[in-house]
## 1
Amino acid sequence: LSLHPKILYEQAELECSNCGDCVVACKKMGNALSFTPPQINWLAKYWQKIHLPGPRKIVTAVLALAVLSGLGVLAFHVTTSWKSPAGSYKETNALLDNKRLSWDDGRAEYYEFLPDGTLICVGGDWPVNGFKGGRWQSVDTNGSFKMIFNSTQPDSYVIAGMNGRVGKKAQFTLVYYENNTRIKADDKQHVMVTYEPLQQSHAETAVTLDATVVLNRYAEDIYVLDLRVQDPRGEIKKIFTEGDAITNEVMLTNVKYWLNTPQIIVSEGTAPKLPIRSTMRILFHDGHEESASFITDRVFDRSSEVFDDPWF
């Protein structure tokens, strides 16, 4: 099937049904594939080469296990005692720690900067009950910062470069990077609208996956609501949606993300009344559930494109 078993859990492949036939077939080719990690296979083969009487082998195994357990406990103690929770990924910056920020033309109503490096986006394209947008990182002593919206892709990020000290009405630029390569920069100077201490965080209620609701305007004034939830590891079982423009619909998946299919045409020829309220109820395979509530109050202009959907 031209599959890549080594990366199945990093990049889902629909054709794989975990039948195990590949493992059976590879037994004749030196056990190239197996259901156990290669380290365990190596240890088993190494153990078979040790020629000791049965009882001595058992005693040796117990002693080896005790030594390894001790080293593991010591390593854990050193790690938890001396390493910060976010490791080297996060540098402390009093200008940004535990702050609530917003700026003109921001995709979120505001952003929460938590001391452990967590970035939470609230409102705008994201749920009003918060989305853990990824990570933030201090860039300089003026308060410039990096925002990584997908923790699995740390090489793609946005840098906000302050022209002076960070604060309300401060001006800054936004520069976008992919694979650590600069791809574009905003022409305009952005202005900080909110810069204040964070009184109450959405850390306990924030939706853990990137859930967005975006209203697009296409050619001939066709307004389409696009609901999308990223699901790179296939953790979601089902998503129910409802709201001003939706009536109890179930989203569908293409493995890596969920979306409303067909897309929701809100209006044709005239602009819809804003804001549009919508909710998602996200059910996970592990049994837990999350909810996301949206208030969509702006339109993305895609009028240069024709809305081309087979259902439409």
## 2
Amino acid sequence: MSTSEILGIIVALTQIGGYYSYYLSTKKEVRPNTTSWTIWTIGAILELISYMYVTSDWVKNLLPLACSFSCLILYINILYRGKFQRLNLENIFMIFLDFAALGLWYTTDSALVGNIALQVSTVISFVPIYKEVFDKYQNETIPPWILWSAAYFLDLIVIFLRWDKWGDLVYPLTNFILHFIMLILVFIHTYQIKKKSMNYEIEPHLYAGPSKIAGNGLFTSKKIKKGEVAFEMKGPKIYFHPRNKEEALQLPNIVGLDKDFYIDPVYPYVFINHKCEPNLATDEDGVSFTAIRDIEENEELTFDYSISEHSDWEMACGCGSEKCRSIIKSIEKLPKEDFKRYYPYIPTYFQKVYLKEYIKDNK
């Protein structure tokens, strides 16, 4: 087996690794948009087909093959765990561009023209993602973008090792630039999250680390007894009024304090995970987090997200507890037995929301 063939296999495995890393992040940090993933999956498959005609080289085609396969598998998983969202004009325009590229390929009888047109569509599709990260609406994680950038960079080496024509460069070069820009933006976003925490006094026993629930988690280096305040959530207070489900998912890390009033947690509080059988609950102020059972040294700190949310927000849950609810929703969807258990700790506004809904449903 030649050097370029071995490198081509490494490229494909690196690309698949990036998608697996992204899959892990969707369990906590990242909230994938099913409609966007529909567009990306269609685009990935069309790019694979057109690039196969451009190169006619199985080694060069390993990366787009790994990309389209992984994208399709992840898309099916996202659909299974989530709910398909209605297409907006931007989504329809992106799908139109993909199929317009196919039409261009057919009319010009040139796979290269069709593939270049698909790259233009890809560039346009990345603009909203850049905006989301730049505006800090989307909390992307670094590892997938490192792996994807590395995969496309290594693929460029494969292209040069198996040089045939310049057209083979268009697909990997475009995607390397797009993914590398995203990587830089995510690095900047992560740095800004940590920098914000420098303006707050962080409890010394708190630290962030890999979580068995999902992504990173918030941990304590000391024991905390039941009824003891574990910490006070730190971060800027913001007003946020989501008008629909899509907007409700834009700020996945905020913690509700009152009607349309939230705290945007700084590092390391931003990593606190949800659990359906948590060890913490908020006090009535929504800022103080109190132990509802004894917590051991180096144990992960968790709370039930539902007790601080009143909107169309929802998320898939894989916390692993025996009472896992699978889909976590707003406070009024909380099971009655859980509400009773949390009641002394739920912020006043969310208590009223639940009780109002309960009374209405039981008239």
## 3
Amino acid sequence: MRWALNPASAASRLVGGREADAYDAEASYLWAYNKDPKNPLPDAYALNRLTPEEWPTSIKALDKYTVELKGNPVAFGGMFKWTSQSQDIIPRELIGKFDLNDFMNTVGTGAFMAKDYVRGSSATFIRNPGYWGKDPVGPGKGNQLPYIDGFKTFFIADRSSRLAALRTAKIDHLGDRSSRGASPGLTREDVVSLLKTDPQLKTNGAFQRYDMIAFRLDKPELPWHDVRVRQAMWLAIDRQAIVKDYFGGEADWYAYPIDTPDPMWKALGAFVPYEELPPSAQELFKYNPEKAKKLLAEAGYPNGFKAELILEAGNVDYASIAQFYLAKIGINLQLSVKESGVFTSISIARSHPEAIWTGMAAPYSQHEWRVGHQSNVAYVDDPRMTNMIAEFAKYFMIDDEKAYAEFGKIFAYSIEQAYYLPLPAGRVYTAWWPWLKGYSGESMFGATSQFGFIKWIWLDQALKKSMGF
């Protein structure tokens, strides 16, 4: 693989389109884990998903194609997972010399290169003529990828504007925004509305949105510091009714603490069937407003209380359902809607005063329960949970049977403690016009290749014209 040679980028011209090698990986890993003050990307993906005990103890390129990482044997699995799969690899010439938060300084080995960026509006990409990938299967086997010369992605915060852009063919595709707590590309209601006016649109609902409310647990003066209050809120939610009435049956009422009850997690032993949970955990998924009121009274809140929930506009409809059920037990959930950029800043900084709308990560990370972790927006600080996570880390990616046996304990305990208030997991939908070829509604390839599908698609311009666009 070679680094893209982008004439529009000074950073890319400096690298010169040379081959990517292990020395780039060595420099990138050292740059992330050493917390270099010149590091322009302090939110390095792997670094923020590991505790210091899981960081590599040694990073060294042995030759042009081999980089050696050593780490704590009782926590090596997590380090290997995130560092090998998710940490950005950057041309070593750029580290400490270019602002890599600048879109035009992005240099990669992928199918497209940066052309233009308008903050809060759009990003434009052009084809990388030096891309190495070829189509491996089907009628196009052996064809050089990507098929298209470039594409533009738009940042449209307003839901109605997003739908209008698709309806008028200003955009060809509208899909999943899978970041934590983000407004989904399309909900089931959106799809129903779109197909009424434009039945020729194609849709896919293969992905899941996973929503939950995080209440700050680090403030003893707040009601939910008491586990009885948190459990009361769980009991107040009629999950079966939400699945039936809001999602039209297209949702999973039991999908916590795993973001999707996927066959992979079941095969690994990470997913604990509802029937195998302890009775105390099973009970919390059952709708029982009377017991919820009793628990609130026992905790000192017989008349309920008020709480502020910070969220984006795209999640208001779903949050209103939680608001409705919590009101039945006396909890007045006030929705504080924020613009997308403001919401993201609050989420990353964990600066919400009381509660925030969020999502759930993969089960092998346990980010939501790690003390001090950016994804721990509930501020969970439970020594027992911390010890269980450490026990899991001893075996992760070393002995999966033991690792996921340990995760089974974490699974049940996290439910009983009710750190977060999860809601049923519905589908995240994608819609696209039929002239978008080579596409079936995909959002990601693998765990980290978001928008990776774009290199496989092409546009049938004749069909688009025949449809009046």
## 4
Amino acid sequence: MSCKRPELEIFPAVDHLLKYESSGYDYYKTYIPSENGLYKLLVKVFEHKPIQILPQELSCNDASNLYTSYLDTHILGDIYNLYNSHRFWKAKYNGKEVSREDAINHACEMIEAGLSAGRRYILLENRNSPALNRLIALIREEYPDIYFIDKNLREIGNGKNYYVDTIDKLNYYNALAGFDSLSHIHSHLENRDKLKAMLSDNLLINTYNISKLGLSAKGDCINLSFKYDKAVKLNIPKSHFLESWADGESAFGEYAVQQAVVNPLNPSSFSDMELLFTLFKILGLSKLQEYDDYYSFLATPAFTERLKAG
């Protein structure tokens, strides 16, 4: 499988390309924003194909004092998901393959119908992305009944979310499920199960592997995933983080860009933020009409100014 570097008018937060002529490898810096901070990656590329994810070497005060950034095994092993032969490839509506454009049209119709029927939850991966928070805020301005929640069933998009203690989680579960605050764990688990059942019936869009959470997306949910779910009406393939653009911020205020290392191997795929932007722009969200596409939304003056500021 051959890949190319993407040709996009955007400003990546990277140093100049490091190339070692003797080995034939290229190395690109990129970042993954998460709810717990900012993963700093060095991606090893051979003949335009990413082959290994490494931690960046970071300088502390001077170039002679280097240390290696922390990466967990999940991030290090995620390179294999890029080439996974079982990766869901083509959008399907009612079990039949559809084009990228038709998938988006069906998704817009499903969102309008879902909102009319009382569906109002969108499940996303929580990460400290200023662009994602800005997009969620714009959507909520015109669609105040839509709630964006993460895998811990917390509402996201209202600023930074690094760590939430057990009491906060307990109160959130109870409040969202419509219960008064309870103090012991048994009641908490009962409420969580009721909340999960409610969410399964009221998800508009799911972009997470919810089987890990004991949840299931039913019927008219739009499923953005690496895996096909026959229980839902519309399945859309998800882009790998090495194929998509995003931004992020660390707990210390460090701003960085998740840059695509390759063009999407699957031209039918979307990242979660790209899908949200595309859908709500087509649905007529007024403040998104000034942007030609997702990339122009991401590369706003605020975005570029923060990069220039270092």
